[in-house]
Each structure stands twice: as structure tokens, then as C-alpha cells.
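Hypothesis: this fold can be encoded by more than one sequence.
Test: take the C-alpha cells below, design a sequence, compare later.
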């Protein structure tokens, strides 16, 4: 898969192994470590501590019942460094892991690597959400047209419920 074509609904999600920040610290983990029991939500975001990213992840933390429980796994993915993600996770009390895609390879594989020309920043994540079923197939995909857009949280919640029912 090139870095311009995001996986479509029905495609197998590209695998990866990357530094993952969670309650146990920072450890390289593969995507496969999160598959198998419940749906997995991959939420790509441009930058820790930015206004929209903070709002998005606090919403995932607070409002979405299944995403804040054992009904699904949420992985936040950003090109931020692990220590920035660890601080973001701690300050915002995020209960789910954050994945450090330092070289942008995961973003490229998912077709969500982008450039913010206005800021002169290249190779960051386009705000996007993929819901995977327990086998790792994409069951839902949302791609922001603008980095200030947040996902439709009800649609993500419904996608998680539907993926759990499959």
C-alpha cells in the first residue's frame, strides 16, 4: 500500500510494530497484540497537546462508553516522540495506549501521512479513525478533510458495536 491510499472497509489493516506508551511504560508492540478479542480503534492524530487533538482524545476518554471500557481497544497514533506521548497521556489521564510513529511509516501505510504547508510541517498524521474487527479487517474509516475536524463520535461508537457483533 502506498502512502496515498488508505485501506478501505473490508481490507486487512496494515500491521506494524512501534513504541507504545501505556500504563507499563514504553514498549515496542505489534498491532496484532491488540487484535483477537474486541474491535480496535486506530485514531491517528497530528500532535499531542494541540487543541483539536486534546478535545478528540478527551472525548474518546469521557463520552464513548464502549471505547472507554473493555468493549474495544483504542490506540492513538501520532508521529510525536514517545516521551511527548507519555506526557500527553498522563496530563489528560488517557486510559488507552498511544503509539509513536516516529518515522511516519504507519501513517504512510495507512495513507494518512500529510503535510501542513501553512506550518511547514511534513510527515505528520492526518486526523483519521479506522475501526478494525477482531481479525484486523477494516470495518469503518473516517478521514478528516481539515485538521480542525473531529470524528463523528456516534458513528465511531456504532462502528465499534457493529464490529463487536460480527
Amino acid at each position: 500500500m502506498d502512502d496515498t491510499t488508505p485501506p478501505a472497509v473490508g481490507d486487512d489493516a496494515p500491521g506494524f510494530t512501534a513504541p507504545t506508551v501505556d500504563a507499563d511504560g514504553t514498549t515496542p508492540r505489534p498491532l496484532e497484540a491488540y487484535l483477537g478479542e474486541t474491535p480496535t480503534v486506530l485514531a491517528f492524530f497530528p500532535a499531542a497537546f494541540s487543541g483539536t487533538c486534546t478535545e478528540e482524545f478527551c472525548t474518546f476518554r469521557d463520552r464513548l462508553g464502549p471505547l472507554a471500557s473493555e468493549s474495544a481497544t483504542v490506540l492513538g497514533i501520532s508521529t510525536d516522540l514517545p516521551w511527548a506521548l507519555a506526557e500527553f497521556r498522563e496530563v489528560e489521564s488517557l486510559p488507552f495506549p498511544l503509539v509513536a510513529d516516529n518515522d511516519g511509516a504507519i501513517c504512510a501505510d495507512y495513507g494518512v501521512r500529510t503535510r501542513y504547508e501553512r506550518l511547514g510541517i511534513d510527515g505528520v498524521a492526518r486526523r483519521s479513525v479506522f475501526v478494525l474487527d477482531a481479525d484486523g479487517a477494516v470495518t469503518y474509516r473516517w478521514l478528516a478533510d481539515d485538521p480542525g475536524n473531529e470524528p463523528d463520535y456516534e458513528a465511531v461508537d456504532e462502528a465499534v458495536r457493529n464490529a463487536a457483533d460480527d
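The domain at 17-165 is CATH 3.40.30.10 (Glutaredoxin). The first strand starts at residue 17 and ends at 22.
Hypothesis status: open.
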